[in-house]
Amino acid sequence: VTEASVRRSTEEMMDGSRARAEAPSEEPSAKLFCCGCVRRYIPLVYREEIYHILRMAGPLLVCRFLNFLLFFVVTMFCGRLGNTELAGYGMASATIHVTATATGYGLTLACDTLVSQTFGSKNLLHVGVILQRGVLILLLFCLPCWALLINTQPLLLLVGQDPEVCFLMFAWFSSNVQAMFLYQLQRSYLQNQGVIMPQMYASVVVNIVNVLANYVLLFWLDLGVHGSAAANSFAPIFSCIALFTYIRIKKLHVKTWGGWSSESLQDWGAYMKLAIPSTLMACFDWWIYEIGGFLAGMLGEVDLAAQHVVIMLAYIVYMIPLGLQGAACVRVGNALGAGNTAGAIHTSKVSLILAAILAILLGVVIASTKTVICVGMGILLGTGQQKIAAIANLLGYYLIGLPLSIILTYPAKLQIAGFWLGLLVAVFLLAIYFVVIIFRLNWKKMTEEVHLIVSSRDQTEERSPPVAQERQEVGQEEEKSSAASMLSTSQLMVRRGLTTLAAVLILAVGTVVHLTVPLPEVAFITNNTMDWENFTSPAPLTTQTLSF
């Protein structure tokens, strides 16, 4: 008996050692960390986190690059039409991005926070409710956007922009704003559930269709500006339809979509408390570079061209940390929603370490520090602390960076280099601030606060037992107060009706202004056949006034 027990214990020890030897191959991170010395020095929890972040960041990077190619392709085809047409598209693109795209993107960032945290809490059907709420709010927001866009032409003329460029710019304005918003919401809906590949597949298909549409409309049908505008308008619509079709065919919505619900009309205030800081955070970060283009335009064509080249290069480089930002937001939000405070901390540490490594690899000072800021904003986005990032961007960019850039550009006569030097100081200070503030966050308190956001009013929803028990212990008083804050049907009809009426009135006012207020009387040259360098036989100049 003794020999048998000894033999049995020996076999168990051998099986255990064999299992431990084979364990690394069973770990997901073993695909990335196949070297034994690396596994020895990097703890398992960090190896797993690095693997999951990079696994998400890679496809997200590809998606960002493919979205950039859409605008790049349109720019190339517009360049074949002429310099004026290219300038018109550039002005239209910049105007739409600064107004509608930037603000709409900021509003969808609230879904990044809410969906990631709610999905982490395993309250899956409430994810669909959040998506419905975002759809309703973003569709209403389209109405003020249209009211603004249809009146941008006279505004640009008043500030001295080229009349002919402004006239052509209006051709690229279309009613595809809602398609852009819906596509962003679909991406947020999938991305924050950890589903990344569908948007990459859709982006590949859309890029192929975009090239074909531009080629057919501009070269085969020879539609010129209107053909380019039609192709540019079709791209976001097809993106939205392609991603929606993929979701339906693959049934990616089944677990999180319970059908349209009146609950989507509730809690708009909670959504906007996250959406407004998210919008400010994104716009403050976005607009500073557009201001740089305006300052460069005042210096001359050479500086403006240099600024444009630098912006394009910076945008391409910036897409790399954008992938890390999205992955960090998803992982942090999922961890907090699941009540896993330690997991959220690990994700934050690993994300910042990867950002630092990426900064070193990039080798460009401003791009390096910008990487840390981008990942830091993703972490704060996952925690629901967008307000911190919004205030930091406002103070750093506009109270420190912009005044310093103006001083270095004009009084110091450093030209466009002065703008980037001033911006470098702001970005460096912001990078330090984001790192410090993230490590000083009270993560346990935030985990409890997230419970207030993701707690469901439907107690029949399935939850993981540990999380459900922990949240039940947090307190039933919070659920009672949440139920008390629910609006009645009559209150919903009044409040949402007034919101809809306000949006419609804004569009109506914008339409009336567009139809009744004449354009500023700006004369411009209509004889484009004259060679301005040949003064021997000048042709008479005619002028006309821009009109609708």
TrEMBL record:
One of its GO terms (cellular component) is membrane. It is found in: Membrane. It is a multi-pass membrane protein. The chain crosses the membrane at residues 61-82, 94-115, 135-159, 165-183, 204-223, 229-249, 270-289, 352-381, 388-410, 416-439, 498-517. InterPro entries: MATE_euk, MATE_fam. It holds the Pfam family MatE. Residues 1-23, 461-483 are annotated as: Disordered. The keyword Transmembrane helix applies. One of its GO terms (molecular function) is xenobiotic transmembrane transporter activity. One of its GO terms (biological process) is xenobiotic detoxification by transmembrane export across the plasma membrane. Keywords: Membrane, Transmembrane, Transmembrane helix. Residues 461-481 have a biased composition (Basic and acidic residues). Belongs to the multi antimicrobial extrusion (MATE) (TC 2.A.66.1) family. This is Multidrug and toxin extrusion protein. It comes from Astyanax mexicanus. The gene is LOC103045605.
